Hints:
- By secondary structure, the chain is of the alpha/beta class.
- The chain has a single domain (6-245), classed as Rossmann fold (3-Layer(aba) Sandwich).
- It has seven helices and seven strands; from the N terminus they run E-H-E-H-E-H-E-H-E-H-E-H-H-E.
- The protein has helices at residues 15-26, 39-52, 68-78, 103-131, 152-172, 199-205, 214-223; strands spanning 6-10, 30-35, 58-62, 85-88, 134-139, 177-184, 236-239.
- Strands 3-2-1-4-5-6-7 form a seven-stranded parallel beta sheet, with helices on both faces.
- Strand 2, helix 2 (39-52) and strand 3 form a beta-alpha-beta unit.
- The radius of gyration is 17 Å and the shape is globular.
- The chain starts with 5 loop residues before the first strand and ends in a 12-residue tail after the last strand.
Amino acid sequence: MTExxxxxxxxxxxxxxxxxxxxxxAGGHDVVFTYRSSADEARALAEDVAAANxxxxxxxxxxxxxxxxxxxxxxxxxxxxxxLGFVHNAGQSYDALAAMMAQxxxxxxxxxxFFAFTRLCKALMRPMLRxxxxxxxxxxxxxxxxxxxxNAAYAATKxxxxxxxxxxxxxxxxxxxTVNVIAPGFVDxxxxxxxxxYRESMEKQIPAGRFCQPEEVAGLAAFLMTPPAAYVTGATIxxxxxxTAMLGIHR
Length: 251
């Protein structure tokens, strides 16, 4: 994609999502990003990114991906628009041992992480297929690649995401659409606050010796939108400092 295109980013108000919004705008794209509860942060981000990238259009839109009716309404609205890029960054964590898993919480995570992605893909697909150009990127997790106790439900949502993306990639490749999954390891954001007491010991066990930065995930997402990435599709790409290349990590 060489010309300016519109890209949709879910969960773009902070953390990895905000870094992705910045990277896409810096790459010359207009960006619509969703947020759930961080309205002030979303507005501030949009203003800051627009100021840093003159001529770009940065638009925040409220959307709770856990609300199926809201997702349907949102998809109905964007079906009349044209997006040639989509990054599904929004995610919901849920940690519990499989024997203790609460079904409603597991289903809520699956709705946000997986089913919302499939519905948004369906809404965005036709303009991409008609244009014979489109880039879809889902932010998965190394939890879907390497097992970790307490991650059963969350890993299942990200595993479903990767399986769906591979199939979608095969179905759309001849029409110029690429579909890939980025699988981060431990990214240095607010979501890792519960791991703070274990951070030093965890970093020692990661081959790279540190947590990933949001900008590194965003940089990979931005690359997947560029012309040199046109032949990359159906891939799950770890960005984990070598974590999945070893046996495991323990607190």
